[in-house]
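step: validate -> pass
step: tokenize input -> pass
step: predict -> running
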Amino acid sequence: MTAHIPVPTQAAPEQVNFHRTELSVILSLYGRFVAAGEWRDYGISALREVAVFSVFRRTAEQPMYRIEKRPKMAAKQGMYSVIGMDGRILRRGHDLKTVLRVLERKLIRAVD
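step: predict -> pass
step: emit ->
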């Protein structure tokens, strides 16, 4: 007697992750904010549809900002977005460096 092994008809969805070059850009910005004393901790989440880089002022808080990568939005408004603590999308676009400029402006104000 042979056992019948069911074959999945659809492949399991993979996780979305940040690429090394994307993390380099994000961590460079993060390092500048740490040096300015604004940020202290971060967290990275890799989920099915989104990768999230969360920035914290203190470890036990809600994230101040979330940098998200949603590949399904690439053809629409852009796969990268910066989301504030209140859930508002501060910037969205196709180029990560351009999207992160919204945070760089806040760094210039913090140093002044």
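step: describe -> The chain has a mean pLDDT of 83.
step: cleanup -> pass
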